[in-house]
């Protein structure tokens, strides 16, 4: 395909030089380019196709980058990236060394705020708008937030704050609600119903009907009082956004440049908090995506636009997500107390089947991680057994609820932490690198790290049987493909196991006798490395409670330890082992392998694991570098 006009646009300044009449062609070419590009690289699709006209209009009307655009979640910014000088970098999208799938301040001056986690845009834009006022700069700040992202409490915290003056200063912030009546799944909650009424115009109709029904059959004096009350409400019904102090405009068609451009020009020139409600279609312009916006939210890889996403002929190994989804249904069959909760990630967390089979025990609470955790706590108070399916990275948003509402009260909640560790294409914003460190330090919390698909099922069952707060963490994608035992057996609580014994006798000449303590799916590269080094390997299974008996047993029979985890080294499982050794007065050298104290960027997961030294070669190399032939590590054998 050719994109003659788009090829001439290397910056928004080029776009603003175009005749207004050419913008429609530019939008059409931009949409075709994004579709073609994503069909080659994979990535988010529906939301990008839905924001093409809005993106063109915003960069046409606002003096970007001086005027700030803040894209909420940021998964809809491919058109923005193409128009802001990165058209020719799209082939490297979400790949190692390529551009991110989300806005990044260090990638472009037009990416005014890094996003990825939802519902932060209004807060950031308000900060930028207030900074402009404080510094006396004439700039606008625009937050573009979806109807899904609008369901998060943080968005309302920001509205509540941005809608009023502070010390006499009022920020010039424009909030654009991009309402496509979709989250990743169909939207949930009362806000969605409210927005639907605003969109349908029934809002006004309801106000009129209400007025008429009240005014008839009432005594005259009552008539006057009520008429005055209702005509006030009827003429300009206060939308919720106006109650927050914003001037509300809309809903308008978010695909019609003839509506968007004059409206944005008008709002740009007005000061103070402005709220524009635009209605778009997720997947606009691509029939397959329009018809199934859930499926076409994102493409996992290449696809032929003419055919769309097709399932691969050979059944792939089950993913950990699928293992969880299956376990959840099996467990729900056995235990009527089970309630499944997701904060707006039904598909990603593998709960579609559970929703179908157990609709009364399924809760999608919207993008509301904090609420999801404390809602679970409330259920647990009443003797139910809530299971919160939540990505490791998104649990970060509900940390206080985890500590204060669940652990402090020792409530019986199971957290199924999907996407634990590196996630690959989504990169640093979505990596689940920190959950071992931030959960194990909470009193009464238990932390399980299954090593493969079968262990995932057994760990979920073990955690579910335990009364109290538990996290079970597992990575994005599939494991090594172990057979799944349908029978669920609870593990001995807090116990690991030795998977491989070193053949070396301790204390003999040559390389020291090494014990590798693996936590989670890194067990398998550790086993491969151990074959090369003839090391012992323990599958620890629990970070908390740690199997201190096994730690002691290994420490007393080996010369050195290696701990391995797909989590941050700082404060992680290896730290737990070090603490246990110190507490037991056992002083042997420990090499901690895990994720480094830096953000790991987007890319192919296997390449990222190798980059972090967590593949078999990396583990073996680290061990050899640290312990190689180190006779000083050898302790004299008992009879020498
Ligand atoms: C805190 C947080 N929770 C969950 C997600 C996962 N997520 C990404 S996009 C999305 C739906 C967003 O819906 P909306 O804002 O309406 O944007 P649309 O996809 O409709 O354009 C969700 C739940 C996230 N990025 N951040
Ligand atoms: C934008 C966003 O946050 C989600 O779409 C996320 O990218 C989903 O991640 P998975 O692809 O791992 O489900
Ligand atoms: Mg939406």
From TrEMBL:
Q: What class of enzyme is it?
A: transferase
How does the cofactor attach, per the note? Binds 1 Mg(2+) ion per subunit. Binds 1 thiamine pyrophosphate per subunit.
Q: Which annotated residues bind Mg(2+)? A: 147, 180
This entry's Enzyme Commission designation comes to 2.2.1.7
Can you tell me which residues bind thiamine diphosphate?
75, 116-118, 148-149, 180, 286, 369
- Domain called Transketolase-like pyrimidine-binding: residue spans: 318-482
The pathway entry for this protein reads as:
Metabolic intermediate biosynthesis; 1-deoxy-D-xylulose 5-phosphate biosynthesis; 1-deoxy-D-xylulose 5-phosphate from D-glyceraldehyde 3-phosphate and pyruvate: step 1/1
Any one Gene Ontology MF annotation carried by this entry is:
1-deoxy-D-xylulose-5-phosphate synthase activity
What UniProt keywords are attached to this protein's entry? Answer: Isoprene biosynthesis, Magnesium, Metal-binding, Thiamine biosynthesis, Thiamine pyrophosphate, Transferase
Q: Which PROSITE patterns match?
A: TRANSKETOLASE_1 (PS00801), TRANSKETOLASE_2 (PS00802)
What reaction does this catalyse?
D-glyceraldehyde 3-phosphate + pyruvate + H(+) = 1-deoxy-D-xylulose 5-phosphate + CO2
Q: Which coenzymes or cofactors are required?
A: Mg(2+); thiamine diphosphate
Q: What does this protein do?
A: Catalyzes the acyloin condensation reaction between C atoms 2 and 3 of pyruvate and glyceraldehyde 3-phosphate to yield 1-deoxy-D-xylulose-5-phosphate (DXP).
Q: How does it assemble?
A: Homodimer.
Family statement: Belongs to the transketolase family. DXPS subfamily.
Name recorded for this polypeptide: 1-deoxy-D-xylulose-5-phosphate synthase
Q: Species lineage, top-down?
A: Bacteria, Pseudomonadati, Pseudomonadota, Betaproteobacteria, Burkholderiales
Q: Which gene encodes it?
A: dxs
């Amino acid at each position: 395909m050719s994109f003659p006009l788009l090829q001439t646009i290397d910056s928004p300044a080029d776009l603003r030089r175009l005749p207004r009449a050419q913008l429609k062609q530019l939008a059409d070419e931009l949409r075709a380019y994004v579709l073609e590009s994503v069909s080659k690289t994979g990535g988010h699709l529906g939301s990008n196709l839905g924001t093409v006209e809005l993106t063109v209009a915003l960069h046409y009307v606002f003096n970007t980058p001086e005027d700030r655009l803040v894209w909420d979640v940021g998964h809809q910014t491919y058109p923005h990236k193409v128009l802001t000088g990165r058209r020719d970098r799209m082939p490297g999208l979400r790949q190692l060394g390529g551009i991110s799938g989300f806005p990044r301040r260090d990638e472009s001056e037009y990416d005014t705020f890094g996003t990825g986690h939802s519902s932060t845009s209004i807060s950031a834009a308000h900060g930028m708008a207030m900074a402009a006022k404080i510094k006396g700069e004439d700039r606008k700040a625009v937050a573009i937030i979806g109807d899904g992202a609008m369901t998060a409490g943080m968005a309302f915290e920001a509205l509540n704050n941005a809608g009023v003056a502070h010390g006499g200063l009022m920020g010039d912030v424009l909030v654009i609600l991009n309402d496509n009546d979709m989250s990743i799944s169909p939207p949930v909650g009362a806000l969605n119903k409210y927005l639907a009424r605003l969109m349908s115009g029934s809002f006004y109709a309801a106000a009129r009907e209400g007025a008429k029904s009240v005014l008839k059959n009432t005594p005259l004096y009552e008539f006057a009082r009520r008429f005055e009350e209702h005509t006030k409400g009827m003429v300009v019904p206060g939308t919720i956004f106006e109650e927050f102090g914003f001037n509300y405009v809309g809903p308008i068609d978010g695909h019609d440049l003839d509506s968007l451009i004059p409206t944005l020009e008008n709002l740009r020139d007005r000061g103070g908090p402005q709220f524009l409600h635009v209605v778009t279609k997720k997947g606009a312009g691509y029939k397959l995506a329009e018809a199934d916006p859930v499926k076409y939210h994102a493409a996992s890889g290449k696809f032929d636009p003419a055919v769309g996403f097709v399932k691969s002929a050979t059944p792939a190994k089950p993913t950990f997500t699928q293992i969880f989804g299956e376990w959840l249904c099996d467990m729900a069959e056995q235990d009527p107390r089970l309630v499944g909760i997701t904060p707006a990630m039904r598909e990603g967390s593998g709960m579609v089947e559970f929703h179908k089979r157990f609709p009364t025990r399924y809760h999608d609470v919207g993008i509301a991680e904090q609420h999801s955790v404390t809602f679970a706590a409330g259920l647990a108070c009443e003797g139910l057994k809530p299971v919160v399916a939540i990505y490791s990275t998104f649990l970060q948003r509900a940390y206080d609820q985890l500590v204060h509402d669940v652990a402090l009260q020792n409530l019986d909640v199971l957290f199924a932490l999907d996407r634990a560790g590196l996630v690959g294409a989504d990169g640093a914003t979505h990596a689940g690198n920190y959950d071992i460190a931030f959960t194990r330090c909470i009193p009464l919390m238990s932390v399980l790290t299954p090593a493969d698909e079968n262990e995932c099922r057994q760990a979920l069952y073990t955690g579910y049987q335990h009364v109290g707060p538990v996290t079970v963490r597992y990575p994005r994608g599939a494991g090594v493909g172990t057979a799944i035992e349908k029978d669920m057996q609870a593990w001995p609580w807090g116990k690991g196991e030795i998977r491989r014994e070193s053949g070396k006798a301790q204390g003999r000449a040559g390389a020291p006798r090494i014990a590798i303590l693996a936590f989670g799916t890194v067990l398998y590269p550790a086993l491969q490395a151990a074959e090369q080094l003839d090391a012992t390997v323990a599958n620890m299974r629990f970070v908390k409670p740690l199997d201190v008996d096994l730690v002691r047993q290994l420490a007393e029979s080996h010369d050195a330890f290696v701990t391995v985890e797909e989590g941050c080294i700082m404060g992680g499982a290896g730290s737990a082992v070090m603490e246990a050794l110190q507490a037991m007065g056992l002083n042997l050298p420990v090499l901690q392998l895990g994720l480094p104290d830096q953000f790991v960027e987007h890319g192919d997961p296997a390449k990222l694991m190798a980059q972090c030294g967590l593949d078999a070669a990396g583990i073996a190399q680290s061990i050899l570098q640290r312990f190689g032939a180190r006779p000083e590590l050898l302790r004299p054998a008992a009879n020498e």
